[in-house]
Design goal:
The structure holds two protein chains of two kinds. Chain A is an all-beta fold. In chain A, 0% of the residues lie in helices and 49% in strands. Chain B is built from no helices and eleven strands. Classes of the chains: A mainly beta, B mainly beta.
Chain lengths: 114, 112
């Protein structure tokens, strides 16, 4: 079935640094791809998504491009802020059974220092 | 805001007692999910529902049961809580057309 492999953390950056969190996937066909973010003590929030190959999802200065050639969906941000400190999860649908399920990467902890 | 609430938000219980967690949605979505989140294991699916009275098992369903008697409510029951069920539990709704899930705020459960 579909699966995702996510860059292990933790990642520590200084404010205004460039961020990349790697995510690669194995899938049948071209499913939608997602990035979720979890701030301390909260539930997961959808950060961005891309629904087909070559699409770019973007939100809050974060971007990720759906690249079928490299089966990747890396998350990037040009200048991180302290408020971006969180855990980031890559995900894609498993699409088994009677409901669409998501499978998640293991999460990458990002800490941004002032 | 996807209109998802979970109750209770925190609970401490003893081994062997039954526990029920509630997930409530206000937007009439068909798909609902229960996950647990543990360090080193990420997010794992416990059970899911694709309609009233329609439920199925996920990856880690042993020791858990669910019920969905109304579209808006999805209950997760630990029949006899064990310390290994200490975790953070998240409910999610699925918006099928958008292929997207939205998560509730979570319930922290401690089983002593």
């Amino acid at each position: 079935g579909n699966s995702v492999t996510q860059m292990e953390g933790p990642v520590t950056l200084s404010e205004e640094a460039f961020l990349t969190i790697n995510c690669t996937y194995t899938a049948t066909g071209y499913p939608s791809l997602f990035w979720y973010v979890q701030y301390p003590g909260e539930g997961l929030q959808l950060l961005l998504k891309a629904t087909k190959a070559d699409d770019k999802g973007s939100n809050k200065g974060f971007e990720a491009t759906y690249r079928k050639e490299t089966t990747s969906f890396h998350l990037e941000k040009g200048s991180v802020q302290v408020s971006d400190s969180a855990v980031y999860f890559c995900a894609l649908p498993v699409s088994s059974g009677s409901a669409r399920q998501l499978t998640f990467g293991s999460g990458t902890q990002l800490t941004v220092l002032p | 805001d996807a209109g998802i609430t979970q109750s209770p938000r925190h609970k401490v219980t003893e081994t062997g007692t039954p526990v029920t967690l509630r997930c409530h949605q206000t937007e009439n979505h068909r798909y609902m999910y229960w996950y647990r989140q543990d360090p080193g294991h990420g997010l794992r699916l416990i059970h899911y529902s694709y309609g009233v009275k329609d439920t199925d098992k996920g990856e880690v369903s042993d020791g858990y049961s669910v019920s969905r008697s109304k579209t808006e409510d999805f209950l997760l029951t630990l029949e006899s809580a064990t310390s290994s069920q200490t975790s953070v539990y998240f409910c999610a709704i699925g918006v099928a057309v958008q292929e997207t899930q939205y998560f509730g705020p979570g319930t922290r459960l401690l089983v002593l």
